[in-house]
């Protein structure tokens, strides 16, 4: 299966009084570039989460956003943290002994002191399991989206390749007539220029120029490269770099075909091939 480098997926999980969200999005990129945006509570698990993404994606710029917030309608329960209160009281007494003129802490100061009020928190193991489960589901959805887009891209490429094969197949039967017409015109011009000179010299010049406009080798290579494009599309997997290389080879042969052309129709075919190659190359930039 061919995969696009463009994809999106979003998954949400309710875990107790909290809601965990995982969002994946990607665009095309030369290599694999994975970026994470996670809250501090999830930071200890980032390495393992990154490994999950790398195992499923081979190319593209992938952004993973993980959010953690209160569930809708959830009510937090608060209670005083005895250990924090004890430490705060000890510090306050030490400060009063060292600096008697300093005013003591008010109830408002104490309640707003970090850690004094404890709230319901998620156990680290529970949060870790939820993160991995949500990311696994997001990756499944993400891969399915990339596969659907990849299938569309593969269909477009196959259509363009078929059009190119048809153009190449139409050139080969014309070449004997093209070479014969070119040979007759060249012979007439040479005889006129040489004023009835040596026929052997005329034949040598004709053979030389005929070999220069023979495009059998270019047509064979074009057909071979197009056959490889179809094989790569059928094989699937990470095909983007291979297809991009094949586009370079096809473009080289189309340029040679155009430069050796001695016929307007063959020139037009070469130009049409270059247009189709460029259209395919644009689509290939999005393939993994």
Number of helices: 9
Give the overall pLDDT as a whole number: 84
Query: Spatial order of the strands in the main sheet?
Result: 1-2-4-3
Major pleated sheet: 4 strands, mixed
Strand content: 5-15%
Radius of gyration: 36 Å
Count of discrete structural domains: 3
CATH topology of the largest domain: Butyryl-CoA Dehydrogenase, subunit A, domain 3
Uncertain segments are none
The amount of helix comes to 55-70%
Instruction: Find the structural class using helix and strand composition.
Output: alpha+beta
Q: What separation lies between the terminal Cα atoms?
A: 11 Å
What is the overall shape?
rod-shaped
The first-level CATH class of the largest domain is given as Mainly Alpha
Number of strands: 6
Helix and strand succession? EEEHEEHHEHHHHHH
Give the second-level CATH assignment, the architecture of the largest domain: Up-down Bundle
